[in-house]
């Protein structure tokens, strides 16, 4: 996964950028207000208050800069902020030789009269004065003439009140964090809604997500879709299983009921009907036994068995059963002893069902080839000489109660559980089972992992 596709990195960078934006905006706004002269009437211009920072810097420059720098500072104040500055000596003359407005002279006289930072309002302007002392000229009066144009009221209010600036920064950071949180939690909220819908029985609930890539939330959404699909498939399989079980049980029970009724009506022929009842009862018992075996394949592998010896025994049994039809089994062992871990007789039932399936479907006077080899573990193949299975049904033959068309084996009387039991048993051992068609029939292949082998 790429670094910037990580959900953690996105959250980290998001909060980091928000924090940086808040701090940066605070510093920039503070620098903006501190670098500009105050508006006329600013609280910092009142006699009992400390002058504004920008004014302090400007007053320092007026007191200490040489003439060239002094002229430059005065020109900058006029060009950038529209403030005209006059530096008057005790005789009311400007140090730079400029003509001094009458209002400026009146304000300088007030300052000479011991007034602390006096100010007056003239048409279109407001004037304030400060006492300064230059090394060469001695005590002087600095008169500031502010322009009529002022900043907007909101900017003035924000610049004058530090708490308002702090509140504004909190609001901005809150808005950014809200947007970031919405982006982060939207996918989680979608997942929460989908989970509730799935829990309420909407098994077709899915999340819209890209097929690959993305961050952890995309992976979580894909995992949810996979889980929902598997859950839907399994619940539907359970429903089909219950329907199939009901169907399989209904037929022998119906025959039992008919046979019992006929035996009661025709006592003279009760032996015939009792025999039929016995056959249907045995069929029910066999069906229930296979169902139980199919549901109990979940135990631990605590026993051992020689796979080669097991296959030899099962091939002998199948060869004995098929001798009347000319059906035989040939086992080819490409390895010696193959001892594997198992549980009870689970592997025996699995391979017995596979061989019985081959015995039922191979044609008369043919040989079923069984091969045991060492290929990435142990591999067993069983190849018959029957009609095969349609390609689109190769996976379905391992599901419960699934039976191929009876024309493949008209004499078959199975329940469609044998290969399903084999599949679950092989899965218990960590292996896999599959089927494919060959030129002569059907081949069932079982692959067992090497980690169940006993050294």
Give your account of this protein's structure:
Residues 40-49 and 408-412 have low confidence and may be disordered. The protein is rod-shaped and about 150 Å long. Helix content is 51%, strand content 15%. The protein has a 5-stranded mixed beta sheet with strand order 6-8-9-11-10, covered by helices on one side. A 4-stranded antiparallel beta sheet has the order 1-4-3-2, sandwiched between helices. A hairpin with a 4-residue loop joins strand 8 and strand 9. The chain contains 11 helices and 11 strands. It has helices spanning 7-35, 53-64, 67-81, 102-112, 153-160, 162-199, 216-265, 270-295, 307-321, 346-361, 418-428; strands at 84-88, 119-122, 125-134, 138-146, 303-306, 328-333, 339-342, 367-373, 378-383, 432-437, 442-448. The chain has 3 domains: 40-150, Beta-Lactamase; 232-294; 297-452, Histidine kinase-like ATPase, C-terminal domain (Heat Shock Protein 90), CATH 3.30.565.10. The protein is an alpha+beta fold. Its EC number is 2.7.13.3. It catalyses: ATP + protein L-histidine = ADP + protein N-phospho-L-histidine. Residues 221-294 form a coiled coil.
Mean pLDDT: 77
Order of helices and strands: HHHEHEEEHHHHEHEEHEEHEE
Q: What is the subunit organization of this protein?
A: single chain
Got a strand count? 11
Radius of gyration: 48 Å
CATH superfamily placement of the largest domain: Histidine kinase-like ATPase, C-terminal domain
Low-confidence stretches: 40-49, 408-412
Shape: rod-shaped
Largest sheet: 5 strands, mixed
CATH class of the largest domain: Alpha Beta
Rounded to the nearest angstrom, the distance between the terminal CA atoms is 39 Å
Query: Which fold name corresponds to the CATH topology of the largest domain?
Result: Heat Shock Protein 90
How many discrete structural domains? 3
Structural class: alpha+beta
Q: Please work out how many helical segments DSSP would assign.
A: 11
In what order do the strands lie side by side in the largest sheet? 6-8-9-11-10
CATH arch. level architecture of the largest domain: 2-Layer Sandwich
Query: In what range is the share of β-strand residues?
Result: 5-15%
Q: Percent helix among the residues?
A: 40-55%
């Amino acid at each position: 996964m790429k670094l910037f596709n990580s959900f953690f990195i996105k959250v980290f960078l998001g909060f980091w950028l928000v924090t940086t934006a808040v701090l940066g905006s605070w510093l920039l706004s503070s620098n903006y207000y501190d670098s500009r002269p105050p508006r006329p009437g600013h609280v910092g211009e009142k006699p009992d208050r400390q002058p504004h920072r920008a004014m302090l810097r400007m007053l320092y420059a007026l007191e200490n800069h040489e003439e060239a720098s002094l002229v430059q500072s005065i020109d900058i104040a006029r060009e950038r902020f529209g403030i005209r500055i006059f530096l008057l000596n005790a005789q009311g003359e400007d140090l730079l030789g400029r003509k001094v407005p009458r209002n400026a002279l009146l304000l300088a006289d007030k300052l000479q009269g011991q007034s602390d930072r006096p100010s007056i309002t003239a048409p279109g302007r407001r004037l304030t004065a400060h006492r300064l002392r230059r090394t060469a000229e001695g005590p002087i009066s600095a008169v500031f003439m502010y322009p009529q144009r002022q900043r907007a009221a909101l900017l003035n209010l924000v610049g004058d009140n530090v708490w308002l600036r702090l509140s504004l920064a909190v609001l901005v950071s809150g808005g950014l964090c809200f947007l970031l949180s919405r982006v982060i939690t939207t996918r989680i909220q979608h997942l929460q809604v989908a989970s509730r819908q799935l829990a309420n029985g909407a098994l077709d609930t899915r999340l819209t997500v890209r097929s690959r890539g993305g961050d952890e939330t995309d992976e979580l959404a894909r995992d949810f879709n996979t889980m929902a699909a598997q859950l839907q498939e399994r619940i539907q399989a359970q429903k089909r299983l219950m329907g199939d079980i009901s169907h399989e049980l209904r037929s022998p029970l119906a025959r039992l009921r008919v046979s019992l009724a006929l035996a009661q009506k025709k006592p003279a022929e009760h032996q015939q009907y009792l025999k039929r009842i016995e056959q249907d009862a045995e069929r029910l018992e066999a069906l229930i036994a296979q169902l139980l075996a199919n549901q109990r394949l979940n135990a631990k592998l605590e026993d051992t068995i020689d796979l080669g010896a097991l296959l030899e025994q099962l091939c002998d049994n199948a060869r004995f059963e098929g001798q009347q039809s000319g059906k035989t089994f040939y086992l080819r062992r490409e390895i010696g002893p193959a001892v594997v871990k198992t549980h009870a007789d689970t592997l025996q039932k699995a391979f017995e069902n596979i061989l019985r399936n081959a015995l039922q479907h191979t044609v008369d006077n043919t040989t079923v080839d069984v091969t045991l080899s060492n290929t990435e573990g142990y591999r067993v193949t069983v190849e018959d000489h029957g009609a095969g299975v349609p390609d689109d049904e190769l996976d379905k033959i391992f599901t419960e109660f699934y039976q191929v068309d009876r024309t493949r084996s008209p004499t078959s009387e199975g329940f469609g559980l044998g290969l399903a039991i084999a599949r679950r048993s092989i899965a218990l051992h960590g292996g896999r089972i599959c089927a494919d068609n060959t030129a002569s029939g059907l081949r069932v292949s079982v692959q067992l992992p090497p980690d169940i082998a006993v050294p």
